[in-house]
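Q: What changes when zinc ion is included in the input?
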Amino acid sequence: MTAERARITVFDTTLRDGEQSPGCSMNQQEKLRLAHQLDRLGVDVIEAGFPIASDGDFESVRAIASVVRRPIIAGLARACRPDIERAWEALQHAARPRIHVFLATSDIHLQYKLRITRDQCVEQAREAIRLAKSLCDDVEFSPEDATRTEPEFLCRVLEAVVEAGATTLNIPDTVGYTVPSEFGALITTIRQRVKGIENVIISAHCHNDLGMAVANALAAVAAGARQVECTINGIGERAGNASLEEIVMAMRVRPDRYPYETGVVGDQIFASSQMLSEITGVPVQPNKAITGRNAFAHEAGIHQDGMLKNPLTYEIMTPQSVGVPDSKLVLGKHSGRHALSIRCEQLGYQFDRRALDDIYRRFVRLADKIKHVEDHHLLELIRDTHKPSGSATPLIEKIVPPQAAVVNAPVAEPTPEPSKPFPVGPQTNAFGVPLPVHGDAHHEQTQQEDYLWGV
Ligand SMILES: [Zn+2]
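A: The predicted holo structure follows.
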C-alpha cells in the first residue's frame, strides 16, 4: 500500500458538458457557487464553459477565472480563430488558464458535419493549436468522436497537434460507444504510435450511453491515461458523463486494482452532489452509486442485523468517507446555529454570518411548527431564502432576502442572461459554411445545435 501511486488529474466538466445537458443550465451566480464548491472538492481542472457559445457563458468563464484561483480554469473552443480568441479573452486573467480546442476526426463527422477532408482536418487542428499556443501555454486538444475514428488517422492528427504545442490530448468517446477493453487498447495504441506522446498527458472523456463511462475511463487510466474528464452526479450530454465520485471512490476502495491518487477531498463529495442537484433542480437517482440517497441505506433485516454487528459485513466504504451527513444529528428547535451551519455545509451551502442568521431565524420558526426539520425542509427553506419566487409552496412566510444571502462572497456582479443565448453574428458556421436561413425560432435551434457540438 505504500508503493508510489500515479497521480491522476481530475478534470471536472460539470459546468460545460454537464451544463449543456437538458434541464441542467445554470446562470452565472449558480456557476460561481458551484465553481467554489469544485475548488473545495479539490478538482485539478474546472472546465468553466464554452465562451463563444453565448455572452452568458463568456461572462461566467471570466468571472470564475478571476475568483477561483487554485485549479486550472479551462474554456472550450472549436478549432477556429474566433472561438479560440474568445476563449482566451475569457480566460486570460485566470491564475492557471487552459484553452481546450476540439475538432471532430471521424469520417462520419468530417463528411456530414464539417464537410472537410482528412488532410484539411489535420491542417485545421494544427493551425488551431498553434494559435492557441501563441496565447496560452496550457493547451488541450480533443479529437471529437475519437472512438469512431480510424486509429491510424487519429494518431496522425494527434502527432500534428503535439508538434504544434498541445500539452494534453483528450480522447473523447463522444457517443458513448466504446467498451473498456477496446478503449484501453486505443490508449495503448496512441502511446505506442504517436511521436512525442511521452511529453504530453493523455486524458479520457467518456459518455455513458451504454452505462460504461466510468469503466471506460478507468480502463484508459490503467492503459496510461493520466487525466480523467468527469462530472458531479455524472450529468452530461444524453446519458451523461463519467461520474467523478464513482471514479474517485473506485480508486479509493480498490487501490489493489486501481493504484492511483487524486486530489479529491472525499468528504466534499456529497455536498457537491447536493449543491448541483439543488441548483439544477434535477434530483439524484436514489440508487445512484456513492451519492444517491439509498447508496448507504440498509433496509433488509438481515443486512441491518449484520451492520449492527459490524459495518464491514455489508459496507465497502463508510458514508463519512464521501461526506454523507451523520443521520444521528437531528435538527429540532433546540439545535443551535452551529449544528445548523454544519448541516447546511453538508448539504452544499456555506453562509456568511448574516446569511446564516437569516436562515436560522426562519429555521427556528419552522422548527416551532414541525418537530424534526429534515434535509428537504432545510433545502426548501434555503431555496426560499435565496430565490423568493423560486418555490411554489413556501413553508414559511417570505422575508426580503438580504444581499448577504449570496453564498460565498465575493462574487462578481451577476450579468443577466441574454434572452437570446446564442450570438446571431454572420450567417456562416465556424468553418465558413453558410447557415440556412430560417424563421427566428428555428434559427435559434440551428445555432444551438451548432454550439452544442462538444466532445
Ligand atoms: Zn462530452
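Observations recorded in class: The radius of gyration is 23 Å.
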